[in-house]
Amino acid sequence: MFATKPPGGASSSPRRPQFLVAACCLSVFVAGISTTTLNVALPTIRTRLHASVSGLQWTVDAYSLVIACLLLLAGSLADRYGRRKVFLAGLVVFTAASAGCGLAPSLGWLIALRVVQAVGGSMLNPVALSIITDALRDPAERARAIGTWGAVFGLSVGLGPAIGGLVVSAFGWRYVFLINVPLGLLAIVLTMRYITESRATEARRLDPAGQLLFIVALAALTYGVIESPGRFQSPMTVASFAILAIAVILFVAVELRSAQPLIDVRYFRSPPLTGASLIAVLAFGVLAGFSFLSSLYLQQARGLTAVAAGLALLPMAGSMAVLGLVSGRVVARRGPLVPLVVSGLATAVGCAMLSGATQHTPLVYVLAAYAVVGVGLGMVNPPISTIAVSSMPSDQSGVAASIASTSRQAGGALGVAVVGLFVATSAPDQFAHDDRPAWLVLVCSGVAIAALGLLSTGRWARNAALRNADRMSAGFPRDSRPGNGSMSRNQTRRGNRP
Fold it and tell me: Running DSSP on this structure, what letter comes out for residue 8?
């Protein structure tokens, strides 16, 4: 075992960094396939556990919602109490909850254990990236490790549906969770052996009031959307939206007064950061909504097996993987504008192609539409991170990246909730007809991505970001001190490029 890094002190490079990277990559892989394999299993779960469509929505959203709520908290806990400690705790909780999900006797138990699984999952991806960044001091080695980490996430998205289809057909839906157990145990062993402890030199204070209000607001919004079909005027639905409004108002008030807020709402005076956050919500809402609708359409409307449905989603996953690499290179050379516009338009076109699909539509046509959607979703992720990070002062880049990650997870939860509005009461033989409005919502989301890309990368947006950075630096906001540095005019003008 290596010597533990003292808090805030310099750390030596690990003797076997490949095993450290392997532990971090395993964590992102199991967290990634936990959702993508589940999507293929949804029709089987609906039959075996006698679940409604809203029950299926909660099975997916219980995970996405909790992760979205806890990402920022997990990062703060890791910086304060130790990244290795929090990462290891996340792996243990995630692995144990995965075993519990696989043994769940009812839908209620499955949803509850998905919540626990998400608590562990929230401690994995952001903390793993912090571990890699802290442990690997050589820039080239760090860049390769982060590239590998990102590629593994893409691999989990690409292989998840196929793995899920094979597992469901061969062993049953429970094993889409149980396959996480051996992978999680391997990651735990690697973590205990090869990852040393590290902490932030000056950890941010926790913000329990802001965290609680953030959870309440996002949970109320998701509940209201999922439960509203046919019951929009019911007391519970009205109460959920009222709670949402109150929680948002209180959240803004609390965060403006907090010395070290969970999310400094003044950051959103920067149009590029606000634009990147909205694009992340829309894009990952499309991804989650697309996966939810496609899994039900392929297996219920078309009658495909779980294996065939998983394989049918490979054109989308392949396009995402290839275009993700292309997008990163285009962003590095030309900035994020072109990838965002292409992403939005391709997403809109692909979803428009699917809006008229029936159970008799040629499968080749459906697969072509899936590939077009994959082009759109593959192009969007690199520019989101680039815009978010480059729009803020350099000493706030980590916060900006965390906001973008939280927006992605929140978008995933809302995407499933929104598309479920239109198919919550659909019978299997009517699904291909009833899902058309849901696809049109995704079309509009694609158009909005392109429009926000234009707005958040233009000269007006960059100048507004500059003014906001200068204003915040001049007032030494909250935990900033003179000398931390603000975003310079040259840096802001380079905001379109990394």
Answer: T
Kindly state whether residues 321 and 385 are assigned to the same domain: yes
> Within this chain, do residues 94 and 147 fall inside the same structural domain, yes or no?
yes
> % helix / strand / coil in the chain, to the nearest 5?
80, 0, 20
Q: Within a domain: residue 468?
A: yes
Name the residue with tokens 């989101």.
384
Q: For residue 475, which amino acid is it?
A: G
φ, ψ for residue 234 (rounded to 5)?
-70, 150
Regarding whether 117 and 91 lie in a shared domain, the answer is yes
Residues 422 and 464 in one domain: yes
CA atoms within 13 A on the CB side of 83: 29
Same domain, 436 and 414: yes
3 has pLDDT over 50: no
Residues 59 and 182 in one domain: yes
Number of domains in the chain: 3
In whole angstroms, give the CA distance from residue 316 to residue 286.
13
Q: Which tokens in the block code for residue 424?
A: 């919550």
| Residue-number span of the structural domain to which 417 is assigned | 266-498
Position 280, amino acid: A
- Tracing tokens 């076109």 back to the chain, one arrives at 349
Q: Are 118 and 93 in contact (CB under 8 A)?
A: no
Q: What is the DSSP letter of 105?
A: S
> Does residue 370 lie within any of the structural domains?
yes
Is 25 part of any domain? yes
**Is residue 2 situated within a structural domain?**
no
Position 146: which residue type?
A: I
Residue pair 127/83 in contact by the 8 Å Cβ criterion: yes
Its pTM surpasses 0.85? no
DSSP string, 393-462: -GGGHHHHHHHHHHHHHHHHHHHHHHHHHHHTT--GGGHHHHTHHHHHHHHHHHHHHHHHHHHHTSHHHH
What per-residue confidence (pLDDT) applies to 151? 67
CATH assignment of the domain containing 483? 1.20.1250.20
Task: Give Dmax (Cα) for the chain.
Answer: 66
Question: How many residues are there in the chain?
Answer: 498
Q: Are 242 and 292 in a shared domain?
A: no
- Based on the fold, state whether residues 249 and 272 are members of the same structural domain: no
The first and second tokens of residue 120, run together, are 């562990």
The tens digit of pLDDT for each residue in 252-308 reads 898 888 877 877 777 787 888 888 889 999 999 999 899 889 988 898 888 888 888
Average pLDDT over residues 164-175: 89
